[in-house]
Amino acid sequence: MCQRHGLDVHIVETPWGHGLPATEYEAILKADKNHTIKVVLATHNETATGVKSDIAAVRKALDAAGHPAMLFVDGVSSIGSMDFRMDEWGVDVAVTGSQKGFMLPAGLAIVGFSDRAMQATKTSTLPRTFFDVHDMQKGYDNDAFPYTPPVGLMNGLKLALEMIEDEGLENVFARHRRIATGVRHAVKAWGLELCAVSPDVYSDTVSAIKTPDGFNATDIVTRAADKYGMAFGVGLGEVAGKVFRIGHLGMLTDAMMLSGLGVAEMVMVDLGLDIKLGSGVAAAQEFYRHGV
Amino acid sequence: MCQRHGLDVHIVETPWGHGLPATEYEAILKADKNHTIKVVLATHNETATGVKSDIAAVRKALDAAGHPAMLFVDGVSSIGSMDFRMDEWGVDVAVTGSQKGFMLPAGLAIVGFSDRAMQATKTSTLPRTFFDVHDMQKGYDNDAFPYTPPVGLMNGLKLALEMIEDEGLENVFARHRRIATGVRHAVKAWGLELCAVSPDVYSDTVSAIKTPDGFNATDIVTRAADKYGMAFGVGLGEVAGKVFRIGHLGMLTDAMMLSGLGVAEMVMVDLGLDIKLGSGVAAAQEFYRHGV
Amino acid sequence: MCQRHGLDVHIVETPWGHGLPATEYEAILKADKNHTIKVVLATHNETATGVKSDIAAVRKALDAAGHPAMLFVDGVSSIGSMDFRMDEWGVDVAVTGSQKGFMLPAGLAIVGFSDRAMQATKTSTLPRTFFDVHDMQKGYDNDAFPYTPPVGLMNGLKLALEMIEDEGLENVFARHRRIATGVRHAVKAWGLELCAVSPDVYSDTVSAIKTPDGFNATDIVTRAADKYGMAFGVGLGEVAGKVFRIGHLGMLTDAMMLSGLGVAEMVMVDLGLDIKLGSGVAAAQEFYRHGV
Amino acid sequence: MCQRHGLDVHIVETPWGHGLPATEYEAILKADKNHTIKVVLATHNETATGVKSDIAAVRKALDAAGHPAMLFVDGVSSIGSMDFRMDEWGVDVAVTGSQKGFMLPAGLAIVGFSDRAMQATKTSTLPRTFFDVHDMQKGYDNDAFPYTPPVGLMNGLKLALEMIEDEGLENVFARHRRIATGVRHAVKAWGLELCAVSPDVYSDTVSAIKTPDGFNATDIVTRAADKYGMAFGVGLGEVAGKVFRIGHLGMLTDAMMLSGLGVAEMVMVDLGLDIKLGSGVAAAQEFYRHGV
What we know:
The structure is a homotetramer of 292-residue chains. With 292 residues, chain A is of the alpha+beta class.
């Protein structure tokens, strides 16, 4: 329990690479007899570690505890690319952005409210200096916006949604799963491991790959950008220097993924890691040839 | 010698995969004592076979024969990507397009005339129904065009030229050579051969790769497009069904090339060719790691 | 009768500002007992003079003469903006471009062939060095193109056609008629006259406006561009210096047209013509307020 | 004095149409002997009323009172279009957006901090949930961003700044002044008045125009959009229904402005106001012909 901006906050710690511990959530909620907890926060897909968490399990924890707290979910790097079920999982507020699964430049924060969450905004006394969803609602009721809207991104979102519908949402999810699985085959072929500890938490949109002890994983990211013009992600926080990340979401094909894997191999060999050129690519190719 | 549109035409045949035979040009020119030959045509880079020809040698043939014919060069798939020297090689007319080395959509035919060629257009009696360079010249003299110009493509060309100058023309050539050499290493690793018969005629912008007898190379192109969303080129004319082509020019990086090689491997294995997945990619990677 | 590229050509002269003389066409066709005339050419909308011709009348002339010649129509500045009926008028070949009624950059020549015209291409012995429609047909039969297509413009054309269908083709025609009529009201208010001699030949896509004797109309175009950043058209050929042209086709609204009229007024006053500022604008406004 | 988010706030009321009262600011600051006021807020250009305020006078008020409060300025609809002098006027924080003077889509908030303001952020205890400028500073120090940046808009901003530099910032200001002055001549010709009460507060980027008593100015905006496809602004707050607004900033020319004035005239006549068509256009034209 700590204080943030004058609010009491429980932070549920979990080792990097693990999904969120729903049983611990449940215990805390059960112990909160007076329902002082108003909101449970959960990240669906943790971008820093490539870890997917089980949001349905958080809902079950809430239900098992008979607790009325709302469920807020960070779906920034999952919504549109991985299966996310706002209604079925009883999510009250979900947030994502334009720049991940929707394949657009950064610029739109896309937020969903349940009826219950909308109701709560009417009685909440939290200060709203920057954003009040009621302004949006009033605008929408009049086919308008409460401020100058980013029209270009909104047209882009319309097109992105048409692309997703043309491909079929299930097919979009399956494509991300296939591409990610190919990456995981490559990682195994390299003799490396993911930061994510077990298959049930493997993310289909980003893989954080652990490098050997004593090796600075950030060097991979720097060299990939400098020598091969490719953008990987650095490790953040506790895993800084220990992992590098390959993003694999959005408008991506198996063919494009091979390019990323090929560059990762060149860079790792350049930096002296004991990796066989083409080994990860071949593992991914074998999977992509058969993968659905 | 044959007739085309009422003109006598010598066609110099050369086996597919070979460069143009400058000595044969020279012999024909020397035999033409009356200088009835007005123009010598040559293709700098043959897109169908991935063969580069020695334009300087054609100039030497003209000079050795003391023949006044003009030299017209098709540089469509070389200019801007491979070393081409209009003045040094005494080229009188050179033609290229916007959609190759200049990295733009198709739409602009870019033509260069030597002073001598411009002079010849003033006395030539050939009919000009579609295009007369004098219309262009008159327009340019007044900062104008003789017809509605494709402004978008012309702005694009300005930007493309700035990109090329920023990278440095020599660096652009070197990049194409490096990428193409990587492809050739991959082809060797696959146990296949280029249509181009020897290193001196290897093209740096397109590789036509021969497939084993009895195999329909066009199937590679079809499957790459259908299953992996990648565009290769089919064999044309005499080599239809016998080669497939990988284009590697324009705004291309080593990393992107690995993607094409990886797809080629998957497709060839899919179609039953005896290729080891990752083998060509690894050969290219090894080269790209060290290549300048 | 004259010779062009080895062909006998009748040129039917008509004073600038008049439409094509269908009766003269008919007389020539009737006199051609041996049917040596193979093709009748007609321009639907003459861009230099802002004159619309009656293509249906040419068809009637052909029919009245019982002459089998084909009818080729230049519809560059009419098709998509003014009523054009290829089948009803028995047009055999019609040509337009992407940069007029289709609201795109220059770059596509859009050509329609009747069945009869396609049939004729099979027996015609005219040389085809630049374009052979059979290459296109063969390509289309295989969902392909005989050469690298300008994909961007083709996607643009698809969008342009959707825009036209959304507005409704009849509405597009009506909009052009309304905007053009407003321009004609402005011209009358200025005390000037169109090059086009009578309402039946007034073009709905471009107006060529005569300036007083002794005045150089080209100065209007120069000053409009230099001082006000607006592009008018100069007079061409026989009317060079005698007219300036206002184009009013494509993605244009009444509101945008007022801008052009307002600039024309400022320029004419700047250059000393006896024009009242706002007079033409007011005449157009009055019409646009009520015009359908 | 009132409370906002737990802070004491002086709100300085001024009648709509007037600029900010610097003398009143000075009095309040002088009375604040204990320097409890930390920040003075001022809007440079009030978009709702088309009123420009004298920011230099606020600085003088602060100096005259010997008061250490910082000066924060809303320059959303002025910066880049009207003369704004952050250093000379001693502005500590200035804010604008991408969608006004910078001619871009909405999406970038552009904020400037003085050294003093940056210093204050280090000791301030105000909660920062959404934005902390130190995150930006740390990022910039490493040529990086603390979050995914909107790259497209940033490239657009670079281009916008190049356009402004090419034209010359003083010329950009002069152009806005000229265009706005033309609009004011038109308003006078219509027999109407601006919401802004005197020339010293006339905005060069937006004009709010008062309509006669009993007339609903919002009808003008609705009809302009519905019938003529043009976007004017409605009156807001106290002047809702009493004014309509014409924006005239960004990539705008005299010629384009005539279009807006022409539509305003048509709409006002359509709605029964006693306006002479062309009268305002003519007044603006006369000015634009001579205006620098």
